[in-house]
Design goal:
Strand order of the largest sheet: 1-2-3-4-6-5
Strand content: 5-15%
Distance between the termini: 65 Å
Low-confidence stretches: none
Radius of gyration: 27 Å
Helix content: 40-55%
Shape: elongated
Largest sheet: 6 strands, mixed
Length: about 280
């Protein structure tokens, strides 16, 4: 790709945070959240950012998370980009939701003061065996489907299931296609929809792409995420190898024990059994 055609990827968490974490882009964040959460844009009156700073150590190190946490009116909302297919990602998300939810209750406060807590996960891999790119989880009774509490919500948006052809009548898909974009050509296709918020976000993304510091941070983050994926793959391979080795060793031990039991049935002494085993194992 030509240098002037290269863009920084919005799916990189540091770029996502750099765009939506800025006060001047709050109107874009509000539109983005209203589409993701399927709530009216007019219902979002106030957004307060909790962790907008980009910590250098988090950018360069693998296994670090760069998320965007905020208060949206009375809701607590956390948005995370996840590029690598991480084992137990569902469980990790559930744990992280519970931590955000419980941390909001200060000492001496009543449980009724706990607020709706929403975790939004935008993932660059297929997580669920379905055609839908959006999965919305609530806690409800199994048979009656009665919701236990409105405080719980976890969303997953799977980028691999998003099409490549922009449709101005599907604003949520336009946002996800923008996050998924990796080339200037894709940005131009999105611009042709003439959706105001999308075009404004594209301008911001181009500004970030032209910023030498942001390009460097994007490169560092991409390398860290690649190292993370490599480390996870190596750990899985090692685990499989160790599991197979253990299974073989366990099988040998079980076979040895069966032989001992059979020799005992024939009335051999322990000394004779050990001698027979030594002969068998050292022919």
């Amino acid at each position: 790709m030509a240098q002037n055609n290269r863009i920084v990827k919005l799916k990189l968490d540091v770029i996502f945070k750099a765009m939506f974490g800025r006060k001047e882009n709050e109107h874009l964040l509000a539109d983005f959240l209203s589409r993701l959460l399927e709530i009216p844009r007019s219902s979002i009156k106030r957004i307060i950012m909790d962790n907008v700073e980009l910590i250098p150590d988090h950018i360069a190190n693998k296994f670090s998370r760069v998320d965007l946490k905020m208060q949206v009116d009375q809701r607590i909302v956390n948005v995370e980009m996840q590029i690598s297919d991480e084992p137990s990602f569902r469980e990790r998300t559930l744990f992280y939701w519970s931590k955000i939810y419980s941390d909001e209750l200060k000492s001496g406060e009543n449980y009724s003061q706990l607020r709706e807590t929403i975790c939004i996960n935008i993932v660059n891999f297929n997580l669920f065996d379905c055609a839908e790119y959006h999965s919305h989880f609530k806690v409800m009774e199994k048979n009656r489907h009665e919701i236990l509490s409105d405080c719980f919500a976890i969303h997953f948006f799977e980028l691999k299931k998003i099409g490549k052809h922009p449709n101005k009548d599907k604003p949520l898909e336009l946002w996800l296609q923008l996050i998924n974009a990796e080339t200037e050509e894709e940005l131009q296709m999105l611009e042709q929809t003439n959706v105001q918020e999308i075009n404004q976000a594209i301008l911001v993304l181009r500004e970030l792409s032209a910023d030498e510091k942001m390009r460097y941070m994007a490169d560092m983050r991409e390398k860290a995420l690649h190292d993370e994926a490599t480390a996870i793959h190596a750990a899985i391979e090692k685990g499989i190898e160790q599991g197979l080795k253990k299974g073989i060793e366990q099988g040998k031990a079980e076979e040895r024990q069966r032989m001992i039991e059979n020799l005992r049935k024939f009335g051999l002494s322990e000394e004779q059994i050990q001698a027979a085993l030594h002969t068998q194992e050292n022919p």
